[in-house]
Amino acid sequence: MSSCFFKKYTKIGELTNPKINNTMRKINSIIAIIAVSMAVSTTAFAQESATATASSTVVTPISIATSNAGLLFGNIAVSSTVAGTVVLDTNGDRTGALGVTLPATTGTFNAAQFTIGGESDYTYSIQLPSASFDLTDDAANTMGVSAVVSDPANTGQLNTGTQVISVGATLTVASAQAAGNYTNTEDLTVTVNYN
Fold this sequence. Notes:
The chain has 195 residues and is an alpha+beta fold. The chain has 2 domains: 3-44; 63-194, Immunoglobulin-like.
């Protein structure tokens, strides 16, 4: 071979045979492609997984029931000329004012009581009637009930799974209010919800 041939193909790092040199380049390209493919394949298999537990607890539903005869103002006597009120507090004590007196024959009077049941130690909200409502007799005469209050007020707690709410209110009596038995069986509604 001429020295010219060797000069052309004997640079550092090159083979002396151009065919072998091209073949080696192709082989190197194929090896590079295989290496990249293996790296991608290795990455795909390098993932990890974990599993979490999903759960829920259903608590005892909250309940409410009347536990006595209700909100009873008892017997009252009225003035023929002056209106008045009867305040029945949550302890069941009552006070007559202005044209209302409380006779010695008291009749039955007490605060309304409601028993709340549910999950122990849970707290709950108490919603009382916000509007006044009427007691009505057989002749459609009325007396208004307003300022409904409770003990506990606003929020209760079921320390042992139950609690009693006592409810009082104010009865407004007109002067010369007609004698009779006045009732309302629908409007003294107490609503409770878990907080």
